[in-house]
Every structure is written in C-alpha cells, then in structure tokens.
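Exercise 7b. Backbone tokens:
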C-alpha cells in the first residue's frame, strides 16, 4: 500500500514538472504563428508582412527578432510601417502586444522556385539566476513559417478604402477624402486617381491626382494612407452630387469606385450631422431615399406598437 502511494506521488510530481515546464514555454511570450505564404514573388522586389508578439510574463521581457532558413538573409525587421527605423530587439512590458513590420527583400539573382524559412521571436533570460532556474526560459523561441514562391509573373492587384470626412457638406465647405491603399499584388505600386464630380449627370469637377512623389510606394502586402485630398466646393450649388473615382497604374484603370454626397442640406451641423449622415447612408448616398426609408420604418414601428397596445386592452 505504501509503495503504491509512493508510486502515485512520484507520477504526480513528474506531471507537475512537465506542466510547469509547458507553462514556461507557452505563457512566457506568444506570436501569431499562422504561416506566411508569398506567391508569385518577383526577384528584386520587397514584400511586407506584420509580426505580432505578446508578452504574457509578469515582468519585462527582452525579445529578439531573427530570421532563419533559406529566407534568413531576405528578412529585415522594422518599427510598424516605419521603414527608416530597423529593429532587432525590443523590451516589452507585462501584457504588452507589439507589432513589427517584416520586409522580405528577394535578391535580383534568385532563381525561380520555392524558398522556406522562419521568422522567430526569442525571449532572453533576464538574469543569471533565471538561467540557472530553468533551461526552458533560455530557449523560449516561437517560430512562424515563411514560404516564398519566386517567379516572373507580375500581378497588380490592390483595394482602396475611400473615407470622406462627411457626406453632407455645408455650402462652401471643402470636400475632404481619405484614401487608404491595400496592396494585394506582387509589385510595389503608386496609383493615381481621377476624380469626377457630377450633379444631375453633368460633370462639375474633373481632376487627376498623381501619387505623391515624396511618399514611399505601397509595398506588396502593405497598407498605406496618403495625405487627404481636398476639393473646393465654393462654386458648387446646393443639392446632391456623385463622386466617381478611377484608380490607375501606368494609365491602366484598376479600380473604380463612387460615393454620393450633398451640399447645403444641413440645418444645424452640430446637432444634426450624425442624423444627416445616417439618413444619407441608409439611402445609399441619396438623402431623399434615406428619408423615405427612415419614414417607412417609423411608420411600421408605429403600427406595430399601436397593434400591441390594442391587444393588451
């Protein structure tokens, strides 16, 4: 009986040690580990991805960033979206999440083929005592697999987020448009945009806005917002307008988008801007249609409430 108890106690201790070791490895640092796969990479080009690390320790942790394997010399680490500030390590506070930009530069003499490797987050031991305490602490390393397929096929593919400051302008108010490019192709891009503004089918504004020369190109896998485009509306009449945006690269149209807005339909901007934008949105950019839908909804709601009140009586 005594031997059985000793055996069970020994088994329990072994499991406790194993679980403790696992906790050190799992809960010290974390990294998004879904594989990075870059297809149709062009030699001589750069490809951007984001690395996210989490410090689940209760103390500060020193984290190193490294790349290994066939792509080991291709990867460089930078502060998020700041390619003038390379980093190789960072000190993370307890519970902190850190995003780092990884830039893969495919050498111009790379033969066609598939290349593999890892980008890794490595936690340094904080002290001599910590090193002595557990060898697991020294070797805390989380890998993220990287596969890059190199060939000669150029793919131009991107999406654009168009964000007007408001859809309902006062008379004379500037039309401000934010543009955010999401490059999903395999080559760096610098799109230009042609903006046409129409009222009742007639064009009242037509201008081309080149990609700013002083800004970096949007790298494959990168998301980049250019400065706000401002369009004067002082010569525009009150009413509804349609903005048509055509995005092109080397004179080839890639993306076409549009949105509606109005001028002079605001009674009190401070009090009614949110309501005006809501009505404009549910009407697909048309204020009259938005009011129609809103009125219909309120009518149905009133009928429903009256019917419920009669049922209770």
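Sequence design result:
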């Amino acid at each position: 009986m005594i031997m059985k108890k000793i055996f069970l106690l020994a088994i329990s201790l072994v499991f406790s040690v194993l679980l403790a070791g696992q906790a050190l490895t799992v809960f010290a640092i974390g990294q998004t580990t879904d594989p990075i796969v870059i297809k149709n990479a062009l030699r001589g080009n750069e490809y951007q991805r984001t690395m996210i690390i989490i410090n689940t320790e209760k103390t500060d942790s020193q984290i190193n960033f490294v790349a290994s394997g066939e792509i080991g010399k291709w990867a460089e680490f930078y502060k998020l979206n700041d390619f003038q500030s390379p980093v190789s390590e960072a000190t993370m506070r307890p519970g902190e999440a850190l995003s780092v930009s990884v830039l893969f530069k495919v050498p111009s003499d790379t033969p066609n083929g598939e290349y593999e490797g890892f980008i890794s987050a490595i936690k340094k031991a904080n002290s001599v005592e910590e090193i002595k305490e557990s060898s697991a602490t020294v070797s805390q390393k989380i890998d993220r697999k990287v596969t890059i397929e190199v060939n000669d096929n150029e793919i131009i593919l991107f999406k654009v987020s168009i964000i007007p400051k408001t859809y309902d302008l006062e008379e004379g108010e500037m039309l401000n448009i934010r543009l955010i490019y999401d490059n999903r192709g395999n080559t760096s891009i610098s799109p230009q945009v042609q903006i046409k503004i129409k009222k009742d089918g007639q064009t009242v504004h037509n201008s081309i806005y080149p990609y700013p020369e002083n800004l970096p190109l949007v790298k494959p896998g990168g998301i980049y917002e250019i400065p706000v485009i401002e369009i004067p509306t002082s010569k525009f009449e009150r009413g509804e307008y349609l903005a048509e945006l055509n995005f092109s690269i080397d004179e080839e149209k890639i993306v076409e988008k549009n949105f509606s807005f109005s001028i002079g339909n605001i009674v009190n901007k401070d009090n009614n801007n949110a309501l005006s934008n809501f009505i404009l949105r549910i009407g697909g950019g048309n204020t009259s249609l938005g009011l129609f839908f809103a009125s219909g909804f309120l009518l149905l709601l009133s009928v429903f409430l009256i019917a419920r009140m009669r049922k209770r009586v």
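Instructor comment: Helices lie at 2-28, 128-133, 135-138, 269-282, 287-312. DSSP finds five helices and 19 strands in the chain.
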